[in-house]
Amino acid sequence: xxxAVIEFPLKDTRDRAPDRRLSETLAQMRQAxxxxxxxxxxxxxxxxxQLAGVLLKYQEALVDAVRQDFGHRSxxxxxxxxxxxVLAGLRHARRHLRRWMKPRRRPIDLVFWPGxxxxxxxxxxxxxxxxxxNYPIQLTLGPLTAAIAAGNxxxxxxxxxxxxxxxxxxRMLAEVFDAAEVTVVQGGADVAQAFTRLKxxxxxxxxxxxxxxxxxxxxxxxxxxxxxxxGGKSPAIVAPDYPLAKAAETIAAGKLxxxxxxxxxxxxxxxxxxxxxxxxxxxxxxxxxxxxxxxANPDYTAIVNxxxxxxxxxxxxxARRRGATVVEVNPADERPDPxxxxxxxxxxxxxxxxxxxxxxxxxxxxxxxxxYDSLSAAYAQVNAKPRPLALYLFSDDGGTVRDxxxxxISGGVTVNDTLLHCVQEELPxxxxxxSGMGAYHGEAGFRTFSHAKAVFRQARVNxxxxxxxxxxxxxxxxxKFLLRR
Length: 485
What we know:
The protein has 485 residues and is of the alpha/beta class. It has 2 domains: 17-231 and 436-452, 3-Layer(aba) Sandwich (Aldehyde Dehydrogenase, Chain A, domain 1), CATH 3.40.605.10; 235-430, Aldehyde Dehydrogenase, Chain A, domain 2 (3-Layer(aba) Sandwich). It has helices at 17-36, 41-57, 59-70, 75-101, 138-149, 163-176, 189-196, 209-220, 244-256, 276-290, 306-321, 375-383, 398-407, 442-448, 473-482; strands at 104-106, 116-123, 126-130, 153-157, 182-184, 202-206, 226-229, 235-238, 268-272, 325-328, 346-349, 366-372, 390-394, 412-415, 436-437, 450-457. 46% of the residues are buried.
């Protein structure tokens, strides 16, 4: 995603006060960890139930806070994509937590019998969570659910670009957790930078790839392991066998959800060469059905702030200057007020490869159309770029689907739809390469915030004495047996 939650200056001239304050907070939480230990099963279950309760209690207030932070945000989108996924994750974790926590027996090599081996899942300690603005509820409380399910304590830094939502989340969490369990840290870029320099037991960051590099560099100073949920240019590939109109409507729904401000939104569409005009017509029709009006439509979300609105309009103008054809979709023939930041759905055709819109993650309702001559060429083009967070394939042919899954690498895939792999609690969600590292959701999140501790239990009667000095013929015979083919 393109939100630069943390801006790192070239020259460090910052006030170090945030570092001191945050270090003191972390020290207090770590002391609580040392004195009280990890959250026990009963407290994890109780806390997750309470968190679900306050989420429902404050759902209308959350909808209003997000709406104010965005200028306008569809209430239905907030409930569907911000509140529901958290509730689903909490319910899923409570249903399966006891099984996740159970140590797993592991087989032991014959020569070490009758010893026994197992893996136990141990909480890491105090974890840090940096969340973005585009889904400020889901992308704050989803990772927190995983951290709490695993028994950790957590420090949370919401985005400064959604301050009302962040303040309400802080109030909600204070009703569920004491400060030694979960602490919310508010502030701007200086606080965010200081946060990523702390010696957490694990740090999770959701944001842009460029900022993710800075976060990883800062964490590396303290050897803090990181989970990075980033973004990138997620392609939608329409195979020749798939109905163009059906693909256009599905892609429009996924692209325009939250006005395209989604890290896994279709970033560009790859079409069989010659299908561009048909797709443009079908996309126009689909947008008109989904959003008969744009500016006065409560279902159509605004761009979050002036900075991002200017960035998006700049991408379109750069493409236009380089020779691209710009197609705005305006079903009611409105004249949107730029101050309201309701950006018209826009398609770009004949976009040169060196246009900014083909290099940057778009993160808005702008959709380049890229023709291909063969599916093999389309896969090659995808593979030539940094690995995307998501890939969407539209095909009813089983061989085509298998081929695409085998020949492309992405964080996740949805076939014949968009976005939906992200909301499956039994599927890990995460990136690969430039789109991130690590995964969460469901059991994957529990594992991310746990240490897999290896435990070997020696039997009372065992043969380990055979490997001890003084070495002699007995050990020679043992080694001859162990080193056989």
